[in-house]
Amino acid sequence: MQVIGNNCCGGYFYLLNKERFNNPFMWSLIDASDFIYLIENFKNIDFTNVDFTELTNTRFPDHVLLNKKVNTNKHVIGLKIDNKITVYYTHYLYDRKMNAPTKIDIDIFYNKNYEYVYNKYMERLKRLSKNDEPIFYIITYRKHNWTEEKLKYLLSLKTNYKIIIITQYKIKNKPDNVIIINDNLKEGDPNKITKKYFNKLKELIK
To answer: Residue 111: its pLDDT value, please?
Structure first.
């Protein structure tokens, strides 16, 4: 099973389903346009070609943890994959006092967080097989740059991948490979959204 989420929803699904993390996109965030590119070009992306990018003026400020109890920088680390898409690892944060990876809830604090992110990425990449058809799981938060126009473009793609979308947008026409669940998405936490629809998602993701 390869479930790839556009934000932490993928990690939460694996956690709730008690499955091993089978791809390198766990606990990450991918911008709407980049996620569409990922779906459209999945078979042709070189996932081994990665480079770090640091976002000091993040477009996703609500995802930068500002915890006064820990000594963390206010930035998000990302990996640029094949010079095409950026994956932001929003739960792996720098803390100069942490000489070993330290977990607080789902967040990891470490003074070598670049090394940690890279190693976790490569470890989980080994479990990602392009021979397995991925299932893409999307929550179309506006704060992640989803618009109705981008969603309609995604639905126009010529792909047979199963795509499960939880969205506030009312879509009349969709291809057979796409499953749409309508929600107003006033709940901004992908954990709560995934828990809310978990039984339905579990039936759909087989």
So the answer is: 85
